[in-house]
Amino acid sequence: MSLQPRVCLQTAQATPSVAAAVRAVAGYREPVVLDSAAVGLPASRYTIIACRPDAVLETPPGGPDPFAALRRVCDPADGCPAPAGGPPLPFVGGWIGFLAYEAGCYIESLPASAIRDIDLPVARFAFYPAAAIHDAHTGSWTLVAAQTAAGAECPGDRRPADRLAFYQHLLIEAAGLDQENPPPAPPPSAEDHNLSVDEYLRMVQAAREYIAAGDIFQVNLARRETLTLREPPVNTYLRLRRANPGAYAAFLAWGDLATGMPTPRLRAILCSSPELFLQLDRQGRVVTRPIKGTRPRSPDPRLDQALRAELAASPKDRAELAMIVDLERNDLGRVCAYGSVRVLCPPDSPARPYELESHATVHHLVATVTGRLAPGRSRIDLLRACFPGGSITGAPKVRAMEIIDELEPTQRSVYTGAIGWLGLDGSMMLNIAIRTLIVDAGCIHLHAGGGIVADSQPLAEYEETAAKAEGMRVALGLEAPRGVPCPLASPRS
Length: 493
Prior knowledge:
Blueprint: E1 6-11, H1 18-25, E2 32-35, E3 46-50, E4 55-59, H2 66-74, E5 94-99, E6 123-128, E7 130-135, E8 140-147, H3 160-175, E9 192-193, H4 197-212, E10 218-228, H5 233-243, E11 248-254, E12 267-273, E13 276-280, E14 285-288, E15 291-296, H6 301-313, H7 315-333, E16 342-344, E17 355-358, E18 362-366, E19 368-372, H8 379-386, E20 394-395, H9 397-407, E21 418-423, E22 428-431, E23 436-440, E24 443-452, H10 458-475
Antiparallel strand pairs: 1-8, 2-3, 2-11, 3-7, 4-6, 5-6, 5-21, 7-8, 9-10, 10-20, 10-24, 11-12, 12-23, 13-14, 13-22, 14-19, 15-18, 16-19, 17-18, 21-22, 23-24
Helix pairs in contact: 1-3, 4-10, 5-10
């Protein structure tokens, strides 16, 4: 029997803002931030900041099964106990990273005919045995470090005291940056697109024809914009978390970080996701919160409230969400205890199986589905049973994914995959990687998509993608008038 890791806690001596801590950690090797940037939402509480991992697990396209690789390193026989005393913490050390959307090809046999032109792995997770954790409810920072013994299932054997001292220094360094704001966006480069407006509208019409033929009930389709990155990606991320704060936001960077400026070998993910894919706690409780249904925000309070009311009353949007809830219930039912899967209703409306959430640029309908992991099932079983999230595929899932591959010209990479952690204590939390910018080889890619159903109107669907992209475009210095399609270039030859 292997020795269990021991977890040490320490209260931080400095209490910088999260933005300042993000800027500070970006100067170190392999920085990661899992950021509850949104304000006023119940899920927006903890932000995890870490760097200098002990190990990296990376699976290239066409390489080993990423789920099998994660199982080997992330499912030890003996979990790490929760630390005794101190505040409750979501993360006690573990693996932080992402699964690209194309990891789904290792679960289902899919055509995989879309062009791969973003050079990121199918999966990449790094092992962080220590981190700094910010609690938005109290404004405090807590440092956590796991002692992993030689021969234990988890790698690394540096003293927790060394790790804690490093994070104390990092937060003191960050406190000196507290008054720094990210600089304005540099002048934008020419935009490139994988679909013109007309091509996007034809793609939506093709999806409607598949729906009319009975192939699917709905499918999520996306388009992509690409620009040249002209600044350190952390600057873009700091503007993104202000323009479009997400409860499940993330910043990850690796490769050539020596100068901070973009180079051909620099890779980064800048995410402001509002959507939880999977949460598994130490007691085996599972939560997923699919999003379906969107309306843009308006600066006019009366119009904004009217848009919110319109979404709440929309039979089309409620039907879209109901389809995905059924899909998620079925996915959870494959690995959860019999009878444990439930759709939760909000306390103020016990007959309504959804909530309406207002974010910086859009209103959304959100459902909460829960379950309890069945005995003998692991978190990798749960992840494999549910990946990719149904809200970004459509229903039925496999046929929708086949149609996505046929209609979208380029692979999605991290977009609509999942970003998050698998903790030493057996816990797990992953988002749906939407509202996500991908940095690769000096370029930055912006995706936006939406669910297509039988009565979708192609131009309205395009305008919905524009509303979803607004916060990302603001962060890039590309704000455009809402509701007016941008003149897009033809796709690359």
